[in-house]
Amino acid sequence: MEKNKRVEEYERTAMRYYEDGKLDECVNLTAALLKEDPYLMGSLVLLLSSYRKELFRTGDHGAGARQITELLGRAFYDYNTLKDRLFVLRAAMRARYRGVVTALRETFSQEEWKIVERALLGENSSEGQKANGPRIVLFYSGVESFDFFTDQLRDKLQKKGCEVFVLDLGKIGVLKDGSFEEDERFERFLLDKVDGVVCFDGLGIRSEDMVQIWDEHQAVTVDIFMDPPLRFHPVLEMHPKDYHLFCCDREHVEYVKKYFKEEVPIVDFMPHVGVLPEGEIRKIPYRERKYDILFSGTYYSPESKFKQAERTVPKDSDAHEVYARAFENMKADGSLSVWKGIMLTLEQLGWELSGHDLKTLLWGAEAMDWAVRMYYRESVVTVLAEAGMEICLLGEGWENHPAAELNNVHRVAGQVPYRETLTYMADARINLNVMPGFKDGTHDRIFNTLLQRSVPLTDSSAWIDENFMDGVDIALYDLKQLEKLPEIARKLLEDDELAERIIENGYQKVAGTLTWDLCSQWILDVIRGNGK
């Protein structure tokens, strides 16, 4: 009993060394423990994890993994026995050290490996069923819409012959029923090479450990930014080597190329896509729909969002002054993105920033980004509400909107799952959209609206102007002329023929070019090396 307590204390100390980056100390302590008892799984996992991290930092992870495998055989284990090889293999899997796993696999005969696979995967495990196509990892990140997108991609990629594993980031390292269930599933999938990794906003590649895993597998990483890149500077600076970034706004692509050209050599534009209904979907006649105008999304007061900037910059600081002035500039001119709004403000102030200082200022602008989004959501809804239009609001926070108490403003529901939002969209004649500051990009709300056979009424962007035509396959309004918005909405509600024509034309365009099936193919082409 005393020995067990002493070992546990030493392993906790080794873990602290590892977490603090004191890898030499961790190696020395775990090696000492293994000399006393080579079958301490926790110690061996920490030892291998430390070696993996150190060798990746030095860039010597290929040959180094084989040397470590041989070292373990000389120092602690007898590779002539299946028991010892299997023990080290399990530890290498838990350490997610692919190089050691690969080196050990070569020591097993075909018959032995069949025994190992049964031991690791189970006789009837579906995880043992292999597909012919690339092996791809996706993620559940806890962001409900992103998790929905992951499900869409998994379905489409599997239909294209890919072997797909969805890693739930919220369950990694969580003990359940005496085991780390998600970790074990992940470790089993990592037994064979991973070809591709697909994530949203860097969720799944943000930690050093994850970067090392994907680099060791030489996996192609596809990162899809759903928000402006100024929010994700750390991801742009640290990511797997074979990194392909997609942005939903061409201005975002320009931003990355300007400030992160060396770190991110491959960045391209990828439009949002919509969910194409499957099977027999009842089309609700235009006049019989429940909602005249529906807006789906959250609302916070712009001021409350902007105040959050004070969490990172003092109110009396130069940075706060830039954000405050930029906020006013963007409220006065709806054509400005956050990036261009900040650059205009610096020009007005006569301040010249470059390099690290400018990038730090841009990175800290998330609160202002949210404030601008909410300002225009508030403005658009206010104009329609005060004009007497029946408007329905789906999402959190709308009870705080200035027009919330008007009789013609209705709260349909609070936050609902992404999939349910589509059902609400299908029961509205008009689905209102306010672009989230994407001045040369797209938004999935527009495409989902058309695929649910409703009219999207939205402000525009340079990309939308190039690919859609107002009154033909989309309905547009101008943030600079919001006084005209009620008239545009009334025309769509009264002219069934116009609305139906827009819906049909827009549906045909989106169904043929902007769906999750096509998105999965773009991603698969990148993973296979064929480009988007």
Task: Give me the number of helical elements.
Answer: 23
Q: Outline the low-pLDDT stretches.
A: 123-128
How far from one another are the termini? 60 Å
Largest sheet: 6 strands, parallel
Could you give the count of β-strands? 12
Globular, elongated, flat, extended or rod-shaped: what is the shape?
A: elongated
Helix vs. strand class: alpha/beta
Helix content: 40-55%
Q: What portion of the residues fall into strands of 2 or more residues?
A: 5-15%
Describe this structure in words.
The structure is a single chain. The strands form two sheets. A six-stranded parallel sheet has the order 2-1-3-4-5-6, sandwiched between helices. Residues 123-128 have low confidence and may be disordered. 51% of the residues lie in helices and 11% in strands. It has helices at residues 2-19, 23-36, 41-58, 61-75, 82-94, 98-105, 110-121, 144-159, 181-189, 208-216, 233-237, 250-259, 302-307, 318-332, 338-349, 355-363, 366-386, 418-426, 444-451, 462-467, 485-494, 496-513, 516-527; strands at residues 135-140, 163-168, 196-200, 220-225, 243-247, 267-269, 291-296, 391-394, 409-413, 428-433, 455-459, 475-477. α1 (2-19) packs antiparallel against α2 (23-36) and α1 (2-19) runs parallel beside α3. It is elongated and about 80 Å long.
